[in-house]
Amino acid sequence: MTHADQAATSRTSTPTMAITGATGKVGAMVAQDLRAAGLEPRLLVRDASRAPAWAQDVAVADYGDGQAARRALAGIELLLMVSAAESESRLEEHRIFIEAAASAGVRHVVYTSFLGASPQATFTLSRTHWHTEAALRESGMAFTFLRDSFYTDFLIEVSADGAITGPAGHGRVATVARADVAAAAAAVLRDLAAGRTHHEGATYNLTGPQALSMAEAARIITEVTGRPTVYREESLEEAYASRAHYGAPRWEVDAWVSTYTAIASGELSTVSEDVARLTGRPPLSLADLLRSRPAV
């Protein structure tokens, strides 16, 4: 049987792998990677109309709807659980979904967590990730945790007006490109689908190649793009005041501000080689990602 025949056979066989968040940025990249490898995962989405045209198997499920999740995961053994959209109820939604996955017979869950996940983490949403990890450990399913740092893409997005503004002090963060998180997730899933079990129970820290201060990040953005960019440091009080006009709920503003205070604390300065170990190539730096963008 040729490689093409094997790929065709794989794409027409009953799916045993599923991806949540398949219309999001990371989930969509993972789905494309697996498809290119001859795999055809089931795509779990909230809106079927947004699923890619090439998808052969699409199921609609919301994290907070246990019954729909059980139906969507019927027959699935291997699951990529991309963390749900940020919300005050995200942890409860995760717990409902994990219970549904276990009930549906899922054997192994690969979960996109956060670097240094802890119930005492400075970044408030990191605490949710820790509790989600705990729920997976207690579920009886095998698991792999991909603890990614803040996205390098985020640095580029928040600096679009020429400034990175927040209470990050002189702290450093080893941000990671979304594309590297997706590539690492796809590599783990390909291994597990091939019967390689060394990822079971593993936790991988997904970071970029260097830890940068916000001032250094602003300087790199300026140098690569030619767009003058600066870091404007705020006090904690100034950070809350400057974000008050959005009218966002308190939990969300706490998350925004603690993005920067977590950097200031030094909790996110870890530089890991796990992206390279999983993907076989070095992770993208901020300069690499900037140069890869058409506008640059």
Automatic annotation (TrEMBL):
Protein name: SDR family oxidoreductase
Pfam families in the cross-refs: NAD_binding_10
InterPro entries reported in the protein's UniProt record: NAD(P)-bd_dom, NAD(P)-bd_dom_sf, NmrA-type_oxidoreductase
Domain NAD(P)-binding, first and last residues per copy: 21-191
Organism field: Actinomyces bowdenii
Highest taxon above the source species: Bacteria
